[in-house]
Each structure stands twice: as C-alpha cells, then as structure tokens.
Design brief:
heterodimer; A: mainly alpha; Arc Repressor Mutant, subunit A; 2 domains; elongated; B: mainly alpha
Chain lengths: 192, 81
C-alpha cells in the first residue's frame, strides 16, 4: 500500500469530528502494536500521536467502509519506519537457524520429564516480551500484527505492502524464531 | 499429503490454529488428533503458547498510558489540518 497522500482539507467540521471519534476507537490496538514494534511506552505513545495527526491530514484518502484499523496500522507502521530510519538503525538480518514448529516443545521437553503446562509455566512475561523484541523486525512486525493485533493475513499484507504469501512465510518463520528465542531464554535462566 | 499423517499434521499446525484450512482439511486434522496423542499434545502446546504470547502483550502493563486517549483527542482537535 502506498503511503496516503496529503489532501486539501474539505472543511467539513462534522465529517472531521466523526472521523476522529471512529479513529479513536482503535487507539488501544494501535498503541499495543506500537509498543511491541518499538519496545518503549513513550515511543509508542509518540507513534500513536503521529499516526492520528497523519490520519487526520489524510482522512480524505480513506475509503469509507474499508478497514479503518488496518489503514491506521499502515500509517503507524510507516511512522515507526520513519523513526527507525531517523535513528539510522539498519534492520537486522536473521540471527537464528531454521527450526521446526515443534522446536520449543522438544527442546523444553527433553530437559525435564514434565507436562506441557509445566513447560509454559517456565516462561515468564519478560521471557516472552524479550524474545519478541529480539526477532528481526521484518518477522516481528508480521507476528505483532497477526498474533497480537488480530489482523488477518490479508490485512497484514495490505499494512506491510507485501504479498499475502510473504506474510504467511514470514509469519511461520517468525513464530519459529520466537519459539527458538523462548527456548534460549529458558535455557539461560536455568544456567544462572 | 504425504503417507505419514503425523508429518501432515505438523505441516498444518500453523494454518490449523489460524483457521485458514478448508473444512475438509480441518476435519482430517481433527480426526488425526483424536487418535494420536503425540500430535494432540503438540497442538495443545502450540495453542497454549499462542495464548500466552498474546496475554503477555495485552495485559495490564500493555494497556494505554492513563489519559492517552484524552490527550489524543485534544491533540486532534487543536491541530490544523
């Protein structure tokens, strides 16, 4: 999806107020996505603010009846990318080997004879958040949009401007990388 | 589909949980999970893990900062666009 282009204000106050109220319903969902993309509550709120300003400026390019949350998530993601570029941080390449979907389960299960609930109990909230933040950004953003933001494959494809097949392959790979990172967190916790 | 139903099940794991399989494919997996505890346990684990990740990211510490929506509304109203 190309970034929305600036339009002249139509000057209809009611139109704008209605758009604001509808857009504000998605603030929490957008904040969560911003938080998991950036990892910082302050940055996340800044991103959300920037998103709403850009959305307001470009509201006439929004097609009524289409998915407003996905449209705004596109803007949020562009704002995030602008931040990243500004910080001159290059997207990291893939740090992990390919693994299978059962990797985490097998790795944890072999360390102790234990049932699956016990395995999941060994994962703390910070294990999960840290592991997610360690994913390379192109994998992390797909996982964040679909698994945390509840966007469909098609929405994620539109938000990221990539084909749906790429969403699926990055999503599957991203989830595997997440499991691999989780396994490493648990293993290093046990070494301490 | 391969000849080994457990391999098929592993390949379908993500699509099954994402509910993007066809009804026939879903039914085939369900049938297999009823008779294969090896796969059933791994499917349960994956489902629970998915919920855990989501819970960690949508818990109270991930809620919007107090007053954020009001600040947003104010900002939207005050800005000239």
């Amino acid at each position: 999806m190309t970034p929305p282009i600036d339009h002249e204000p139509a000057g209809e106050a009611l139109d704008r107020a209605a758009f604001e109220e509808e857009a504000l319903q998605h603030a929490e969902q957008l904040y969560r996505i911003g938080l998991r993309l950036s990892g910082s509550p302050l940055t996340a709120e800044d991103l959300v603010q920037e998103t709403y300003l850009r959305a307001l400026r470009n509201r006439h390019s929004f097609r009524p009846g289409s998915n407003l949350a996905a449209w705004m998530a596109t803007i949020l993601r562009n704002a995030y990318l602008d931040d990243v570029r500004r910080a001159a941080r290059r997207p990291s390449s893939e740090p992990f080997d390919e693994t299978t979907d059962y990797y985490l389960y097998n790795r944890l299960a072999e360390q102790a004879e234990t049932n699956q609930e016990a395995i999941l109990r060994r994962l703390s909230r910070s294990d999960v958040l840290d592991s997610l933040s360690e994913l390379p950004s192109n994998f992390r953003e797909v996982v964040v949009l679909v698994d945390i933001g509840d966007f469909s494959y098609a929405d994620a494809a539109e938000i990221l401007g990539i084909p749906i097949g790429t969403v699926m392959s990055r999503l599957h790979r991203g989830r595997r990388l997440l499991k691999r990172a989780l396994a490493e967190h648990v293993a290093s916790a046990e070494d301490r | 589909m391969s000849v080994d139903p457990c391999t098929d099940a592993e390949h379908s794991l993500q699509a099954y949980i994402d509910r993007v399989l066809t009804p026939d494919e879903t039914e085939a997996i369900d049938r297999h999970l009823r008779v294969c505890s090896y796969c059933a346990e791994r499917y349960r684990f994956e489902t629970d893990l998915r919920s855990l990740v989501k819970r960690c990211c949508c818990d109270c510490e991930s809620e919007t900062p107090p007053g954020m929506v009001d600040r947003l509304r104010e900002r939207c109203r005050s800005v000239e666009v």
